[in-house]
Structures are given as structure tokens and as C-alpha cells.
Amino acid sequence: MQLTPEDLLIGASITFDVVISPSILHPGNNQLPINEPQPDFVVQLRPLTIGTFQLIMKAARNDAALIPLLMIKESLVEPTMSLDQVKQLHLGLVNFLIQHIREISGLTVKKNN
Fold first, then answer.
1. Are 18 and 42 spatial neighbours (Cβ–Cβ below 8 Å)?
2. What is the pLDDT of residues 24-83, one digit of tens each?
3. So what's the pLDDT on residue 111?
4. 18, 22, 23, 28 alpha-carbon torsion, rounded to 10°
5. N- to C-terminal Cα separation, the chain
6. What 3-state DSSP class applies to 96?
7. Distance separating alpha carbons of residues 15 and 33, to the nearest angstrom
8. Secondary structure string (H, E, C) spanning 25-90
9. What's this model's pTM, rounded to 2 decimal places?
10. If I label 76, which of 18, 32, 101, 105 is the partner at 20 to 30 A Cα–Cα?
11. Alpha-carbon distance 44 to 16, whole Å?
């Protein structure tokens, strides 16, 4: 089956709901009883396009620490956050979001040994 340009571009417009458990959102918070169901929280992410990724790399040329922050800022559809807000996220949440952004953007590497 021959693909059209539209077929190839459709993946860039899809958004994904990602569930964030309370243990990720609020690490170390043991206030809720273990036996009670804990609420899950949802954010909406979109895959990074090559154009967006190139802009991120150019913007972070002199500061590689900006790369994950800009990736989150550009991928996060709901809620939207400014770069200053993203900079205030705790490291565990940043790591969690980056893992999901890499996955939905097809940036996961499979090593053949």
C-alpha cells in the first residue's frame, strides 16, 4: 500500500493522555491511606516533530540542560506551561514526562546485541 504525505504526517497531530500517579506527582507524600484508592492525574502530550526538535536543539546549543525542559514545554498540550513553570517541576516528574515524550515521539532506541 502506497502512503500519502498525509498518512506520514498524521502521527504528529495525535495527542496522548498520560496518567500520572500520585506517587510520581507528589513523591514522598504518604498522607493517603494505602487501602484507599488514590486518584490518577492526566496530562495531554503530543509527539515532537523534527522541526520542533531542531528548534529545541538550536535554542539549547549553549545549555544542554534546557533540552528536556523545552521538550516538556513543547510537548505538553494540557495543561500548558511556560518555560519558567517547567523549570520548577521536580526531577522525578521531569524524568517521567521525558520518558513518555521520547516514547510517543519515536525516540526510543532498540539496541541489537
1. yes
2. 888 876 665 556 666 678 999 999 999 999 999 999 999 999 999 999 999 999 999 999
3. 60
4. 150
5. 32
6. helix
7. 33
8. HCCCCCCCCCCCCCCCEEEEECCCCHHHHHHHHHHCCCCCCHHHHHHHHHHEEECCCCHHHHCCCC
9. 0.80
10. 32
11. 5
Cα 110 from chain centroid?
19
Nine-digit cell string for 26: 507528589
Q: Coil, helix or strand for 111? A: coil
Q: Rounded to whole angstroms, how far apart are CA atoms 72 and 12?
A: 15
**Rounded distance, CA 63 to CA 59, Å?**
8
Q: Write down how long the chain is.
A: 113
Residue-level pLDDT at 13? 82
Q: Which residue has the cell 514522598?
A: 28
